[in-house]
Amino acid sequence: MRRVTLDVQVGLPAREASAPRRPAPSRTARMRRAAWLFVSPAALFFLVLIAFPLVSVLWRSVHFASLTNPTVTGFAGLENYRTILDDDTFWPALRNTTVWTVLSVAGEYLLGIVSAVALAQPLRGRALFRGAIIIPWVIPIVVAGLDWTWMLTPDYGVINLWLVKIGVLDHARFWLGDMSTALLTVTFVNIWRSFPFYTISLLAALQAVPQELHEAAAIDGAGPVRRFVSITLPHVKTVSLTLIFIHVIWTAINFDFIWVMTEGGPLNASVTVPIMIYRYAMQDYDIGAACALASLSMAFMASAFFVYYYGALRRAKGAAR
């Protein structure tokens, strides 16, 4: 008894025996900690290369800023946005961006689904055609744009030469210099370059369609068109919507093709919102107005994303019911 009392007074053995032990971290906690450890480089990458520039653009959109005049500073409020809306080029650029995006995505999807269905058929040399069709998409945009610019030149372009020889045109036409054809010509070239991406993606989706469904539908008397509408399209719906949504964003913010081929001309006939952003920043050196226009573009893209996301979520809930 005396020995126990001494031990308690000294405090070591008895206190150690009575001290509660911390429970070891569970397997779930260890896995969560390891997951955060692996995700942290990607999160840091996101913060440095995406989040910080995004916040910087939003901040500068409400401040005066110039590349050539460091004295131009201060809070602008909505003045930069007012400058954009008062610009006579803004509404034509917005209309051209809409036309450019809608026609490009529609043409790309139409050619992509047709070529994917054709390449899914048991034809001789199918592997060769599947490999060759990707060539336009792997060509750099600058190279493709310059090549098509040379081919469309009225003086020595082969496109005009062929069209005149077969009787489609009476004389060579300046496709990129005519206000009525400049934007449509660049759109056509963009469709030519981008539709192979649709082809490859949709062809992969078509490979997953059960052949038994087509055979059963054919036995029931369904023709090729009926089988395509009732069987093929529903099975590639998810891939199609994803491709269309991604390419709407990619096309709307595309700068390279139009700048290489027309630079937004002639007389702003093919100017788009990205071209306006470039002009504000690199020609007028008005960083505040350029960031304001970029912020408006981001707001539109974010709105389109949320509409698509919640629409898909609602469709998924409806299907689950």
From TrEMBL:
Boundaries of every ABC transmembrane type-1 domain copy: 94-306
SUPFAM superfamilies: MetI-like
A biological process from GO: transmembrane transport
Superkingdom of origin: Bacteria
Entry membrane topology: Multi-pass membrane protein
Keyword hit for Transferase: no
Main location: membrane
InterPro entries: MetI-like (IPR000515), MetI-like_sf (IPR035906)
The entry's keywords: Cell membrane, Membrane, Transmembrane, Transmembrane helix, Transport
UniProt cross-references to Gene3D superfamilies, sorted A to Z: MetI-like
Location relative to the cell: Cell membrane
Pfam families found in the cross-reference section: BPD_transp_1 (PF00528)
GO CC terms, sorted: plasma membrane
TM spans (from-to): 35-59, 99-120, 132-152, 172-192, 241-261, 287-311
PANTHER family with a match to the protein in the record: BLR7065 PROTEIN, SPERMIDINE_PUTRESCINE TRANSPORT SYSTEM PERMEASE PROTEIN
Family per similarity comment: Belongs to the binding-protein-dependent transport system permease family.
Protein name stated in the entry: Sugar ABC transporter permease
Source species: Pararobbsia silviterrae
Lineage of origin: Bacteria, Pseudomonadati, Pseudomonadota, Betaproteobacteria, Burkholderiales
